[in-house]
């Protein structure tokens, strides 16, 4: 599971990062609101840990912008100003949970797992690219109306691509998102998986396109529909 930690205190960020890695999470760090917003736009996270007192863009401002943009990534606010009024305001503004500083890493770990489980329970969407669709709840691909049987690696890579059809993913982004399930994932392995997926999609008007120097994207080839 991949987390984004948004915290401007480097000592606290270092402690949290190492502690959460020790709990089995992947952790990216952003030290201000603007860099966090850029990371969130470019990457998919299972949960965001957000401090309120950030430079450049406050945590409250970032929270408001994320919710206004329709981002539904679970968000846990970390705050030293733990008043009832503020907690109510944070929940109304779209935060999923909060923790008052200081806190124990054991409690934080439990809250993170609970929020991610809850968010997975909400994820019932169906993604589509032309005749290819992915039912998130059933974790099943359908191509031209028939079930598409894939290996676990093929399934994982195609799931990443169909969640944002038309948007490129670099090999490194694919590796970063799958490394928790495949410790030996590397650029050559990604190439092999993409090659196999192309064979499976060969007779349908949907294809994986290589953008040289950028990555891969999934697109509907309407000219062959």
TrEMBL record:
Q: What is this protein called?
A: Response regulator
**Response regulatory domain location:** 2-116
**An example Gene Ontology CC term for this record:** protein-DNA complex
Recorded hits in PROSITE patterns, A to Z, give:
OMPR_PHOB (PS51755), RESPONSE_REGULATORY (PS50110)
Q: Which GO terms describe its molecular function?
A: phosphorelay response regulator activity; transcription cis-regulatory region binding
Q: What keywords were assigned to this record?
A: DNA-binding, Phosphoprotein, Transcription, Transcription regulation, Two-component regulatory system
Q: Known SMART domains for this protein?
A: REC, Trans_reg_C
Query: Is the keyword DNA-binding in the record?
Result: yes
According to its UniProt entry, one GO biological process term is: regulation of DNA-templated transcription
InterPro entries, A to Z: CheY-like_superfamily, OmpR/PhoB-type_DNA-bd, Sig_transdc_resp-reg_receiver, WalR-like, WH-like_DNA-bd_sf
Task: Identify the species of origin.
Answer: Frigidibacter albus
- What's the domain of life for this entry? Bacteria
Domain OmpR/PhoB-type, residue spans: 124-220
Q: Which Pfam families match?
A: Response_reg, Trans_reg_C
Q: Which residues form a coiled coil?
A: none
Residues modified as 4-aspartylphosphate: 51
């Amino acid at each position: 599971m991949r987390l984004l930690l948004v915290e401007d205190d480097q000592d606290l960020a270092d402690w949290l990062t190492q502690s959460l890695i020790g709990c089995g999470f992947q952790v990216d760090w952003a030290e201000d609101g603007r860099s966090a917003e850029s990371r969130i736009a470019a990457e998919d996270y299972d949960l965001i840990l957000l401090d309120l007192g950030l430079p450049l863009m406050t945590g409250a401002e970032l929270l408001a912008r994320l919710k206004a943009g329709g981002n539904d990534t679970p968000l846990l606010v970390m705050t030293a100003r733990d008043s009832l009024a503020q907690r109510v305001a944070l929940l109304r503004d779209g935060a999923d949970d909060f923790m008052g500083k200081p806190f124990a890493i054991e409690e934080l770990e439990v809250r993170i797992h609970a929020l991610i489980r809850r968010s997975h329970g909400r994820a019932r969407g169906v993604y589509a690219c032309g005749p290819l669709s992915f039912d998130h709840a059933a974790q099943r691909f359908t191509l031209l109306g028939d079930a598409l049987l894939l290996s676990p690696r093929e399934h994982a890579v195609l799931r990443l691509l169909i969640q944002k059809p038309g948007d490129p993913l670099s090999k490194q982004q694919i590796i970063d998102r799958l490394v928790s399930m495949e410790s030996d994932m590397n650029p050559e392995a990604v190439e092999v998986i993409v090659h196999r997926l192309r064979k499976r999609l060969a007779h349908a008007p949907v294809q994986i396109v290589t953008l040289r120097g950028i990555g891969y994207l999934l697109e509907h080839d309407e000219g062959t529909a």
